[in-house]
Structures are given as C-alpha cells and as structure tokens.
Specification:
Length: 103
C-alpha cells in the first residue's frame, strides 16, 4: 500500500511540474505575427496585382496575349463565378487582360 502512495505522489508531482512548466512557457510565448496585408495606404490594387493574387491560386499564369479581348471577357465571366470574385475586382482584372490581349 505504501508503494502505491509513493507512485501516486511521484506521478502527481511529475504531472504538476509539467503543467507548471507548460504554463510558464506559454506565458513567455509571443503572439503570432500578423501577415502583411497589401498596402494599407488606401492603394487600390491594380488589375495585374489582382490577377496575380486570385488567378494564380488555382492554375499557372496565362499571358494576356494568349487570347483576344472577346475571349478574355468570356473567360472572366466563367472565372468570376468559380473564383467568387467581386464585380469590381473582376472588372479590373478584365481591363488588365484586355489592354494587352492578342487582338
């Protein structure tokens, strides 16, 4: 019986020391750094920046010269729905793609 009390006391002490150590470690830990967000100075993202942020998430970059202006318009209608893009961002991306399109 005495052996059980010693084992129980040793185990309880070990668990207590571990919990105190964990608490001290967490108390000294720094909060995670926030990721840098795109320019917060009121800068409106360009069509090229929006294209890089949104379109490259799912597939390799396509070049504006690969399709005509009309083809880009059709593609953007489809991709706006698939990528859940706000209308304003879709317009900026389309404008960027049509400026350098392979007309």
């Amino acid at each position: 019986m005495k052996t059980r009390k010693i084992i129980w006391w040793s185990t309880s002490t070990l668990v207590g020391v571990c919990l105190i150590g964990l608490g001290l470690t967490l108390a000294q830990a720094q909060p995670p750094e926030k990721k840098a967000e795109p320019r917060k100075t009121g800068h409106k993202l360009t069509g090229a920046e929006l294209y890089q942020i949104n379109c490259n998430r799912c597939h390799a970059e396509r070049y504006p010269t690969e399709w005509t202006s009309a083809q880009w318009k059709t593609l953007m209608v489809h991709m706006r729905v698939r990528a859940n893009l706000p209308a304003a961002q879709a317009r900026e991306i389309l404008k960027y793609l049509q400026e350098d399109s392979g007309n």
